[in-house]
Amino acid sequence: MRLRRTAGRIAFGLLVLGIVFYAVFPFYWAIVTSLKAGSALFTVEAWPFHPSLDNYRAIFSQQPFGRNILNSLGVSLSVVALSLGLAVAAAYALGRVAFRGRTLLLLVVLGVSMFPQVAVLSGLFELVRWLGLYNRMGSLVLSYMIFTLPFTVWVLTTFMRELPKELEEAAMVDGASPFVIVTRVFLPLMGPALAATGLLAFIAAWNEFLFALTFTLTDEARTVPVAIALMSGASQYELPWGQIMAASVVVTVPLIALVLVFQRRIVSGLTAGAVKG
Amino acid sequence: MSGAGARASGLTRQRRRSAWLFLLPMLVVLAAVAGWPLARTVYYSFTDATLATLDAYARVGLDNYLWLMRDPVWWRAVWNTVLFTVVSVSLETALGLVVALTLNAHLPGRGLLRAAVLIPWAIPTVVSAQMWGWMFHDLYGVVNAALLGLGVIAQPQAWTADPHLALPVVIAVDVWKSTPFMALLILAALQMLPQDIYEAARVDGVHPVKVFFRITLPLIRPALMVAVLFRTLDALRVFDLMYVLTGNSRSTMSMSVYARQYLIDFQDVGYGSAAATLLVLILALATVAAITLGRVRFEAGR
Fold first, then answer.
1. Which residues, at least 6 apart from B227, have a Cβ–Cβ distance to it below 8 Å?
2. Which residues of B touch A32 (CB under 8 A)?
3. Measured between CB atoms, does B283 come within 8 Å of chain A?
4. What is the pLDDT of residues B30-58, one digit of tens each?
5. Domains and CATH numbers, chain A
6. What is the dihedral of CA A126, A132, A137, A140, to 10 degrees?
7. Which of A87, B19, B49, B163 could pair with A93 as two cysteines, CB 3.0-4.6 Å apart?
8. ipTM, 2 decimals?
9. Chain B: nearest CA to A183, how far in angstroms?
10. Burial class (CB in 10 A: 0-12, 13-18, 19+), A191
11. Eight-state DSSP code of residue B4
């Protein structure tokens, strides 16, 4: 009996190790590759014996990668601010006020989150050109609303609905307008929900590829994912794998740090948005 | 909340008016980036518009759709997308269950394990495609080296170039990237399960495997169905993975890659819009089928 239990425990330990290895190894391999320079790149070694930062230097000198990072940061932060602003207002109306068509509106919003991006590409292209935003960051901030707004509205509505009615009633008795109620009463209580949805919106905007690929043209206007996908070296046939891996590590480390610090928040945000069985 | 209709007091009416005012900005933005562009795409699908001449076009009726029906590359894209969706979502569900059950067990360092599992989810899709593209490299990739070393394969494989291997590779990368999402949603459902049933099952000496299939699985089914639906809709519109790993190669091309190639690369907005419109229809059908057959319920506005 004891033998069986020990065997079970060992098997379980191996399973845990297997999961960790599977999840972490590709990223480890990217780090190892990014530290290899020259011909070391083409040998399969699990450890960089002669670590070099050449690849990291190259992405900032030979490629406009610094600029790409600033683009991505600018776009993602604008997307977070804009979608949270719009979603808080909408969530107040959807979560606290009873009016006809509320359920239908929520379902429409949910429906938008299921749109394939390619289905709005031609219409958005037209809109972006008409607004004079082609090859500018504004085109991305605007178009990213299609996937950040639905889930920020959805999650914040769920959150708003749970807040006690008494808070609002007390403010209303004092004659506070809806605007004051939202900004002074509800907003201070929404810190955790705003952090969770804001983080998810940031990650979604930071990772987006299709719109960024389509609405930007020049190397300098690209965001990080497009830059990494299209990174090319001296010759057309030889991809600069070391530099691609260095760029991948540079943009992923902050994301992983964010996820590790805020993992509880992220998990609660993800599940609040998705699981309501 | 107060009653609807004629009995509404002045205060309620004022609240309702301000509610619409609060909704307006969000609705305007969604209409501009989703509603209007979708309508334009559907409209363009009946025209011969090109990207260069978006305002000068002729209406061509159903021609684009008829061409689409006769294009074997389109049907290949449909098949690739469906195969990709079915295989990767099934694998992600199975693996997600395993990971979620592991995370749910009381073991030391659970937080660390959960953090490690979250890493693939946090990595941008483009980055994971590049990372795996390098690992699957035909000459210098670690996968070839490892499999050769273990004697699984006799010679190096051109993973992303071989038409028989490319789609499985794309699926493998998606499974790696998306299993964490699945696992987290399942874990959330597991943590809401009542513990007393498990106590009772243990007292009765029910085998753990039986407990899983008779108790756990039926109880988490609603949450599982929602997660599967989310992943399915996501997988049906897949673009990044194929585009970065294999470019516009026909052996892996998804419907989104096909539509974008016509819309942007070939600048044939009319034809590309027809393909995009069909993709929307397929997604809508999948959603309706999932909600009716799988009895997925969304708890909207109670």
1. A274, A275, B93, B96, B181, B182, B185, B186
2. none
3. yes
4. 999 999 999 999 999 999 988 887 778 88
5. 2-52 (no CATH), 64-274 (1.10.3720.10)
6. -20
7. B19
8. 0.88
9. 12
10. exposed
11. P
